[in-house]
Automatic annotation (TrEMBL):
Residues 641-689 are annotated as: Disordered. This is Solute carrier family 15 member 1-like. The keyword Cytoplasm does not apply. The chain crosses the membrane at residues 12-30, 67-86, 92-114, 126-147, 170-192, 204-232, 287-305, 339-356, 368-388, 429-450, 546-565, 577-595, 607-628. Keywords: Membrane, Peptide transport, Protein transport, Symport, Transmembrane, Transmembrane helix, Transport. Residues 653-666, 680-689 have a biased composition (Basic and acidic residues). The keyword Protein transport applies. It is a multi-pass membrane protein. GO terms for cellular component: membrane. Gene3D superfamilies: MFS general substrate transporter like domains (1.20.1250.20). GO terms for biological process: oligopeptide transport; protein transport.
Length: 689
C-alpha cells in the first residue's frame, strides 16, 4: 500500500500542460519519428534487394518477409525484458540505440562507392553490402519489435487514475502519429530513392533513402532522452506471459505423470495445474486459450496482407506510373493503404456497421473477420487480373535453362546469319534479330541507358540527365542512369557521311526493358525501330486490389483486436497481444515458404494460389466461429472471487474456536518454564488441531 501511495504521489508531481502530463509530448514525437523511420526504410527495402543487391524476385520477397516476421516475433521478447528485468524506460532506451545502429548500417550498406573500385557505378564486393545490410536488418528487427509493446504502455503509465479521459485522448493521438508517420514516410522515401547520388558515379539513392529514416530514429531517441526527467518510471512487476507459460507447462507435465487410467479424469486438461496454481488463474488461462485456438487460421490473412510491400511493389515496377503532372514511384503505391485506412475506419464504424445492425443482421465480430479475409482474397484475384494485363505487354524472356543472343546489323545492307543448330536468318540493315542458346544478357532496372555508335567517327551523346561522353566508332557507351525512372534500355544508331554537328531529340515513354535503334539525317528525319514494346498498364489498375485489402484489414484486424480484448481477462491482454503478433510473424513465414518452394511459372498463378488458400481458410474459420460461445470475462472472474471470499469466510468461522482455545491456554501460562510436561502436551495437541 505504501508503494501504491508513493507511485500516485510521483504521478501528481509530473508537470502538466492543459491537463496532460508534459512527458507524453516527448513520447508522441518519439513514436512519430520511429514509425517514419521503420515504414520509410521498409517502403524501399524490396527494391533495394532487387536492384542494388541484384537478387531475383523470389529471394527479395523471401528476405523481406523474413525481416517482417522477425519484427513481429521480437515484441514478445521486449515485453518480457521490460516487465521482468529492465522496466519500460530502460528497455526503450537500450533497444532504440540498437535500432538506430541498425538503420545506420542499412544506410552505409547502400553506398555503392565504398566497394566500387573501378568506378563503373556497380559495387565490386557485393558480399560486404549483403552482410552489412543483413546485420542492419537484424538489429532493426530487434529494436523495432522490442520497443513495440513498451512505448504505448509507457505513455499510459504517465496518467493518474483520475485522468481516464486524457489517457483515451493520448492513445487516439498516439495511433494517429503511427498512421501519420507511415503515410509521410511511404511518400517521401521513394522520392528520395528515385534521385541520383554518389561520389564517383550516380546511382539510385538508396543510401539517402535509408539515411533519412536513420536520422529520424536518432531524433526519436534524443527526444525520448530529453524528457527523461519528467517521466513516471514504474518498476518491473513481472510478466504475466511467463506465469501463463509456467502454469500451462505444469499442467501438461502433471497430466503426463497421471496418464494412467487409475487416476480420474478432469473436466479440462488445465485443471491438472490446480495442485500448484490458483483456480482463478487457471480459469483465466482457459478463457485465453479459447481465443488463441481461434487464432490458428489467422496467419493466412497476414500472408496476403503483407505482400503489399513485396510482390505488389515488384508488380508496380512493371507498370506505368505516369499520371500526367504526377509520376508515381513503384514503392509509393503503398501509400494508398494508410490513406484508405484513415478513410474507411470512420465510414465503417459510423455508417456501414450501424446500417447492417438496423437491417436486423447479427454481424458479430467473428463474422466481420470472416468477411475481412474474404475481401483480402478478392484483392489477390484483382492482383492476378492486373498481372495478366501486365504480361500482355512484357517480352518473352529466356527461362533459367535458356539464354539469349541479340544480333544487330549496323550496316545499310542485309546480311545472312547462320548459327549452329539454328536456321539461316537474314538480318536487314539497322534491325535486330533474336536467337537463343548462345549468350544470356541480364538487364537491370530500367533506369539504365546504353548508346551504340554506328559511325566511323567519335560521337558525343548527351541527354538532359546524363552525359554519356565520347563513344568510339562502332562501339557502345557505358550503361548510365537515366533520371526519369520510366526510361529504359535503348540503342541509338547514328549514320552520317559528313562531319557535322546536330541534335537528336526524342521522348521515351516506355516503362520496361526496350530497345530503340535510331538512324537519322541531321535535323531532317528520325527513324525509330522498337524491338520490345513498352508497358502500358497503368499503376491505377492496382487501386482496386489496395481497396479490397484495406477493407479486409479494417474488418479483420481492427475487429480482431476488439474481439480479443473483449474475450480476455483484464490481466491477460498482453498474452493475447503476443498471440496476435505471432500470427503476423507466421503469416510472413508462409510467404517465405511459398516463394521458395512453389516456383510457379507465372506470377498471376501465385496470386490465385494465395487467394484460394485464404478462401479455404475462410470456411474453416467460419466453422470454428459458429461453435464459439461468447463470454463475459469480468463476470466469470467475479464469480471466482466471490467463491474465494465465501471460502475465506468459512475458514474464518472454523478457525474461531481454535483461536479461543489458544487464547485460554496462553492466559493460563506465565512463561515457558512454568509449563509442566502435561501442559506442554495439551498445548501441542491444540496446535496440531
Amino acid at each position: 500500500f505504501k508503494a501504491i501511495a508513493y507511485n500516485k504521489q510521483k504521478k501528481k508531481c509530473i508537470p502538466k500542460v492543459f491537463g496532460y502530463p508534459l512527458s507524453i509530448f516527448f513520447i508522441v514525437v518519439n513514436e512519430f519519428c520511429e514509425r517514419f523511420s521503420y515504414y520509410g526504410m521498409r517502403a524501399v527495402l524490396v527494391l533495394y534487394f532487387k536492384y542494388f543487391l541484384l537478387w531475383d524476385d523470389d529471394l527479395a520477397t523471401s528476405i523481406y518477409h523474413t525481416f517482417v516476421a522477425l519484427c513481429y516475433l521480437t515484441p514478445i521478447l521486449g515485453a518480457i525484458v521490460a516487465d521482468s528485468w529492465l522496466g519500460k524506460f530502460k528497455t526503450i532506451i537500450y533497444l532504440s540505440i540498437v535500432y538506430a545502429i541498425g538503420q545506420v548500417a542499412m544506410a552505409v550498406s547502400a553506398i555503392h562507392d565504398i566497394t566500387d573500385t573501378d568506378r563503373d557505378g556497380k559495387p565490386d564486393n557485393m558480399t560486404f553490402h549483403v552482410a552489412l545490410s543483413m546485420v542492419g536488418l537484424l538489429l532493426i528487427a530487434l529494436g523495432t519489435g522490442g520497443i513495440k509493446p513498451c512505448v504505448a504502455a509507457f505513455g499510459g503509465d504517465q496518467f493518474s487514475d483520475s485522468q481516464d479521459k486524457q489517457r483515451r485522448t493520448f492513445f487516439s493521438v498516439f495511433y494517429l502519429c503511427i498512421n501519420g508517420g507511415s503515410l509521410l514516410s511511404t511518400i517521401i522515401t521513394p522520392i528520395i530513392r528515385a534521385q541520383e547520388c554518389g561520389i564517383h558515379s550516380k546511382q539510385s539513392c538508396y543510401s539517402l533513402a535509408f539515411g533519412v529514416p536513420a536520422a529520424l530514429m536518432v531524433v526519436a531517441l534524443l527526444v525520448f532522452i530529453v524528457g527523461s526527467g519528467m517521466y513516471y518510471k514504474a518498476e518491473p512487476q513481472g510478466n504475466i506471459m511467463l506465469d501463463v507459460c509456467k502454469c500451462i507447462w505444469f499442467a501438461i507435465r502433471n497430466r503426463y505423470r497421471h496418464r494412467s487410467k487409475q487416476y480420474p479424469k478432469r473436466t479440462h486438461w488445465m485443471d491438472w495445474a490446480e495442485e500448484k496454481y490458483d483456480k482463478l488463474l487457471i480459469a483465466q488461462i482457459k478463457m485465453v486459450l479459447k481465443v488463441l485456438f481461434l487464432y490458428i487460421p489467422l496467419p493466412m490473412f497476414w500472408t496476403l496482407f503483407d505482400q503489399k510491400g513485396s510482390r505488389w511493389t515488384l508488380q508496380a515496377t512493371t507498370m506505368d506510373g505516369d499520371f500526367g503532372a504526377l509520376v508515381i514511384q513503384p514503392d509509393q503505391m503503398q501509400t494508398v493503404n494508410p490513406i484508405l485506412i484513415l478513410t474507411l475506419v470512420p465510414i465503417m464504424d459510423s455508417l456501414v456497421y450501424p446500417l447492417i445492425k438496423k437491417c436486423g443482421l447479427n454481424f458479430t465480430p467473428l463474422k466481420r473477420m470472416t468477411v475481412g479475409m474474404f475481401m483480402a482474397s478478392i484483392a489477390f484475384v484483382c492482383a492476378a487480373l492486373v498481372q495478366i494485363e501486365i504480361d500482355k505487354t512484357l517480352p518473352v524472356f529466356p527461362s533459367a535453362a535458356q539464354s539469349q543472343l541479340k544480333l544487330l546489323n549496323m550496316g545499310n545492307n542485309p546480311i545472312t546469319v547462320q548459327l549452329p543448330g539454328n536456321e539461316t536468318t537474314e538480318l536487314p540493315g539497322t534491325m535486330v534479330c533474336i536467337s537463343s542458346t548462345i549468350f544470356f544478357f541480364f538487364f537491370a532496372f530500367c533506369k539504365l541507358g546504353l548508346f551504340v555508335n554506328g559511325m566511323n567517327m567519335m560521337v558525343n551523346v548527351t541527354t538532359p540527365s546524363v552525359n554519356f561522353g565520347l563513344t568510339e566508332p562502332f562501339y557502345y557507351s557505358n550503361y548510365s542512369l537515366i533520371k526519369k525512372w520510366k526510361c529504359c534500355h535503348f540503342y541509338v544508331l547514328v549514320k552520317k557521311k559528313k562531319k557535322q554537328s546536330c541534335w537528336l531529340g526524342h521522348t521515351f515513354t516506355t516503362t520496361e526493358l526496350c530497345f530503340f535503334i535510331y538512324s537519322f539525317q541531321c535535323l531532317k528525319s528520325i527513324t525509330v525501330v522498337q524491338d520490345i514494346k513498352p508497358n502500358t498498364a497503368s499503376m491505377a489498375l492496382q487501386i482496386p486490389q489496395y481497396f479490397f485489402i484495406t477493407l479486409g484489414e479494417v474488418m479483420f484486424s481492427v475487429t480482431g483486436l476488439e474481439f480479443s480484448y473483449s474475450q480476455a481477462p483484464s490481466n491477460m491482454k498482453a498474452v493475447l497481444q503476443a498471440g496476435w503478433l505471432f500470427t503476423v510473424a507466421v503469416g510472413n513465414f508462409i510467404v517465405l515458404i511459398v516463394a521458395e518452394l512453389a516456383k510457379l511459372p507465372k506470377q498471376w498463378t501465385e496470386y490465385v494460389l494465395f487467394a484460394s488458400l485464404l478462401v479455404a481458410v475462410c470456411f474453416i474459420f467460419s466453422g470454428m466461429a459458429y461453435f464459439y460461445t461468447y463470454i463475459d470475462p469480468t463476470e466469470i472472474e467475479a464469480q471466482f472471487k466471490k467463491k474465494d471470499d465465501e471460502d475465506d469466510d468459512d475458514d474464518d468461522q472454523k478457525s474461531k474456536p481454535q483461536k479461543a482455545e489458544m487464547e485460554m491456554v496462553k492466559r493460563g501460562s506465565v512463561n515457558e518454564n512454568d509449563i509442566n510436561q502435561d501442559g506442554a502436551g495439551r498445548e501441542r495437541k491444540v496446535m496440531r488441531e
